[in-house]
Amino acid sequence: MKFVHFRPMAPSQQAKSSKSARILLAGLAVGACLLAGLPGADAQAPAQQPPAAPQGTQQGTPQAAPRAVQAAPQAVPGFWDPRRRPERPDLSRLTVIRFLTETDYPPFNFTGADGNPAGFNVDLARALCEEIKVTCTVQMRRFETLVDALSSNRGDAIIASMAVSPQLRARVDFTDPYYRVPARFASRKDAVMPEIRPEYLEGKKVGVIAGSAHEAYLKAMFTDAELHGYPNDDALRSALRKGEVDFIFGDAISLAFWINGTDSGDCCAFSGGPFVESRFFGEGIGIAVRKGNDVLRQALNWALFRVWEKGRYTDLWLRYFSVSPF
Mind telling me which Pfam families this protein's record contains (predicted)? Predict the structure, then answer.
């Protein structure tokens, strides 16, 4: 197990967003919310969605499929509503926060060149500690041991890309989501579509992992597409690269790294925007705390909002995601 200690910076050392950075952040966040069909805070897809316009599409567009265009530029998700500013909680009872994270899930969690924990989650934990102005530690453990370690008081909070689920809610409490794992379509670069609706994919060959939530979503919403199931990501992506299917549909985060990596051979790009229907793709990723620890949960929620408001969340996102899953 590896530890890293974070100490809050002096106020004069803390990062301050310039006016232009705040404007950029607001624009990116609003754009991402529009793309995902999200209102901002508590961003979730509606419980019911008409098949003609699944989450992530726009109403009132022409029925003819649009021509292929270049992929959309980088976008930064925003899951906080500036109109719902949380009140500053009483932080006097917090003296230290012991974060737990997993050992190997790059770029979110991994061991850095210096042997210390690194990654998006670790840097976000550092930013939260600086905002709350408490000393923090980060301990790396195997993912399957994190909840037990939290329950047995070997840590105070889990920041490890842990998806909120009813089963986990029975054991821990969660902060508001600090990111989501949307689903997206990918196509070859010469066939990129700016928007995807069910009618656009009628008769198209769409690859998906067999038995996955992504396949269930396509079966419910894209009933006229010709679905092809694959056993794993490698087979799925190879089918698109070889032109055996017109599109593939899956986890946008892993697809983003594949698109930008060497394995894709620069073949492919995202088509259309993100899909975030919570019935299929989950409630989002939150920070877990022990049941009933409202003091820490509220402090982390407040700090998350502040980090986003100051532009630091955007800085982190752009640092780690050269191709945005949104």
Answer: SBP_bac_3
